[in-house]
Structures are given as C-alpha cells and as structure tokens.
Amino acid sequence: MLTSLITRHIKPYRRELALIVLLQIMAQIANLYVPTMNARIIDEGIFPKDIQTVWLYGVIMGLAAIVQVSCQITAVYLAATVAMGMGRNIRQAIMAKIFTFSTYEMRDFGAPSLITRSTNDVQQVQTLVFMTLAMMIGAPLMMIGGVIMALRSNVYLSGVMAICVAVLGAGIVLVVQRTIPRFRLMQIRLDNLNRVVREQLTGIRVIRAFVREPFESERFTFASREVRDVGTSIGHAMAILMPFMFFMMSMSQVVLFWFAVGPVNSGALPIGELTAFITYVIQILISVMMSTMMLMMAPRAFVSAIRIMAVLETTPQVAPPRTPATTLPQPGCLTFDHVTFSYPGAEAPVLENISFHLEPGETLAVIGSTGSGKSSLVNLIPRLFDVTSGTIRVGGVDVRTIGESLMASTLAIVPQQAYLFSGTIASNLRFGNPDATDAQLNEALTIAQAPHFVDHLDTPIAQGGTNVSGGQRQRLAIARALVAQPDIYLFDDAFSALDATTDANLREALAVHAAKATKVIVAQRVATVSTADHILVLEHGRMVGYGTHDELLASCQNYQEIVASQQDAEVGA
C-alpha cells in the first residue's frame, strides 16, 4: 500500500531520483576510499619518512571528503524537492477525490478524518520519502561497501562482525513489531482530537451561551491526553533502540579487538588494516542505525498510507455519467416520477412514491413536519444522493445522465445551513458566476434584500460567514444563487432566519426578477408557501397533499393543522 502510493505520485521526478542515486553512490565510494588511504599510510610506514607522499595522500583524502560532502548536500536538496513535490501531488489527489464524493462518502469518512488524512497522514509519508532519499539510499550502499571492504581486509573478523549485526537487527525488528499497532491507534486518536477541536471552534458561541466551557475544556483535555498516552507508549518502546544500538556499536569494537589480539601479535593482521576494518564496521553499524531510524518512521507512514489510499480508492456511490447529456430539451422543467429514496442501512425509506411535474416559471413549495423528508427531496435534484427507485428529470433528462457542468449551469441551490467562504462579499457571490460584473452582483444583492447591510462588495467575510448574522448569511447565500441565473432555483428552508417583512419582500422580488425560472422552496411558514403555484405536503416521507393553498385548506388535514397551529401561535403572541 505504501509503495503503491509513493510510486504513483513520485513518477514526475524520475530524473531527480536517478541523480540522487548517482550522487549517493559517489558519496559512498568517496567515504570508503578515505579509511583505505589511511590504512596504507600506517601500514607502509610512509610517515614520517616521505613527507611529500603524506601530503599527496592527504590532498587525495581531502578531495574525497569534499566530493562526499558535495554529493550529500546535493542529494539532500534534491530529496527535499522530490518529497515536497510528491506530498503536494498526494494532497491534490486527495482533494480532487473528495470533490467527487457524495454525501454518503462525506458521512462515512467525516470532515475531521479527511482533514487529518490530507495533512498529518500526508506529512508522515512525505517525511518517510525524504528520509529514504536523503539517508536510506546511502545506508545500504554504505553497508554493502563496508561489507565488501571488510571481507577484503579480514575474513576471520568479518564473521564476528556478522554476528554483531545480526543481534542488532533482531533487536530492532522486535521493537518495531510492537509499535505498528500503536501507530495505527495514534492516527485514530488524532482524528478524534481534530474532531473535538473543530467542533469547539465552530460552536464557540453555543459553548459560551450555555456556559459549557469547563465541560468542553475537560473534553479537549481527555482527547489530548489520549494522544499523549499513545505517543508516550510509542516513545517508551522506541527509547530502548538508541541505547541498544550504541551499546552494540561499542561492544562490537570490544569483541573485534578481543579477537584481533592474536592476529596482531603474530603479525598476520597489520595495525593499519585493523584500523580500517574497525572503520568499516562502524560504517556498517551506522548504516544499520540509519535504517533503524527509517524503520521507526515506516510503521506510522504505512498506517498513514493505508488511510490515504482508503480515500483515493473509494468509488463514489453517486458516479458521474459515462456519456453525459450535453443539452436539455425542456429547460426549466422538473419532474419526479414515482421517486423513492432510502439512506443506506435505513429500515424505512425517507421518501416514498413522490410524483409531480413543474413547468418553467412555476413555484413549488414543500412543507411538512420536522423529519418528513423535505431536505432529502431537494438534495435528490442536484444528485447529492441518487434515488433508490423512480426517476427525476431536469429539463426532460434523467439527472443521472447530466454532467456536472451542465447541472451547475441549470441548478442553483441555497442549502439549509448557508455557508460563506473567507474572502469578500464579491468573491462569495462570484461562486455562482465567476464572470459576473459588479452591476450583476449589486442587482442580486438588491433582490435578496441585502443592500442595507452591505457597505461595498469588498467587505470582508470570515470563514463560515461568522462575522454576519444568520439572516444576513442567508440573504448573501440567496444572492449567490441569483448571480448564477439558472433555470431552476432550490431554496432549502432558505428563508427561515428572515423576518416576515423581509421574507415577503424577497419573494415578491423573486417573482419579478426570476419569473421565468422554476423555484422549489422548502419552508416552515405558511406565509412563505401560500402564494406558490403548487404546495407539496409531506408526512413521514409520503405525499399527503398536493395543490394550491386554497385547495389544500379544503382537502388536506395535515395542511389544515399546520395552518391552524401557526395561526394559534400568532394569536398567542
């Protein structure tokens, strides 16, 4: 999984990868050359007899060191370039995939987990790639070169060295095996911490209004403590590695000196050769230590890669059409033909056998009790969900065959929870039409009854629109939809935060300026829906009434009860 993820997104950097490998090979050749020259100086007894030769060897060793450092610096620079570029590619791939998700996938993963996967998880993989290119490529080269040079130097001592390396490797493997499940738990708890922080920042006003600061503070402390505990347990498992490696490095030298006493005394092993051999052993053990550092990072990166690939390999349940329709033969028409919809795993359908037809310019109002399926009905039109059975036709074409671009130009939705992006009023309104002029933006604001609180189009908007009131946020969201000038408007309880006067003025302006567009309005107030051409009354996902205001007052008991309850509330007020 980890290899597949890295290979897929590192392909654009093939040249840099080849150059890194070449530089690492050159660096290790230079690194192995130095102790060989040093051993020759000692064993040949050149110093102090031939000072010129000593200077020559010194210059050669100095040049070798310069080559090694230069190659390593360049390799690390290229490694950083490749790793950061690969991380960017993975993040772009994740976001591109998320943009294809339907509401099903968004609910399955959850926003906090997707944030963690596109930030922290990518960072883990990115760091592993950087360390691999900067260190791990050189580590096996150093080990292979060290082993070859050690065998050339003394086969007898090489057997002792092999035992020391085997003991060190076995200890490392045991520790790493214990940490893999903890790394998986670490990412899950980071998801939870991210979720808690996101909820608290988003709901800070509610927390303060209900004086829940102590409770939320304890909730955050608990989530943070969970992350700390699993991080500490990982640290405890890893804490033994470095002391163990240094202990083995020191003990290996002691053991080698112990076994080298006899050959040195007999003259079979020259001092220079022993010195070079010890240097090669140290380089081998250093390469093992570098590999260990990578092994410490690899389990967490592996877990992160699994989480990232889970996003990238998810097939959205609302799939785009293979051959999307390019035109709509009946612009502005909207038809529900025996539509039934159930959420995955639900015992009963949310909507059942819904049928109606709207001609261009007509207005449909949808009303019903809480949980009757009003928002679900609206969400089916732009394919936020797919119907379980039946057909929805927009412009005379099944919505499942309409491409995204055509759908976007045909429909404009104002969701139940109006969301604004950080920027300005103008940048938010141009979500509806990037090419809209300032005059068109001002016209949309006028229709949406927003000019009196908009000083100018460059007025800043905070993330989520938190620096404006709920009613102002709804009116700006309505203006954003008006800028798009679609054939069909979908207002999902978009007037709930407006006072009665503003509501009436806005609907009157819509009737004039969007007279040719079809409108679907979900609302709770009878005053909002009473002037609609058609009113659909829902109860437990079923149509219990369909007609005009007067027709429903005469024939629909549910509608009569809604009207009576609101009239009683007005009298009581």
Could you walk me through the main structural features you see in this protein, from its secondary elements to its overall organization?
Helix 3 packs antiparallel against helix 5 and helix 6 packs antiparallel against helix 11. A six-stranded mixed β-sheet has the order 6-9-10-3-11-12, sandwiched between helices. The chain has two domains: 311 residues, ABC transporter transmembrane region fold, CATH 1.20.1560; 239 residues, Rossmann fold (3-Layer(aba) Sandwich), CATH 3.40.50. It has 573 residues and is α/β, with parallel strands linked by helices. 35% of the residues are buried. It is built from 20 helices and twelve strands. 65% of the residues lie in helices and 10% in strands.
Determine the strand fraction and express it as a percent band.
5-15%
pLDDT averaged residue by residue: 83
Distance between the termini: 64 Å
Total beta strand runs: 12
Helix/strand-derived class?
alpha/beta
Low-pLDDT stretches? none
As a percent range, the share of helical residues equals: 55-70%
Task: Provide the CATH topology of the largest domain.
Answer: ABC transporter transmembrane region fold
Q: Counting H and I runs of at least 4 residues, what is the number of helices?
A: 20
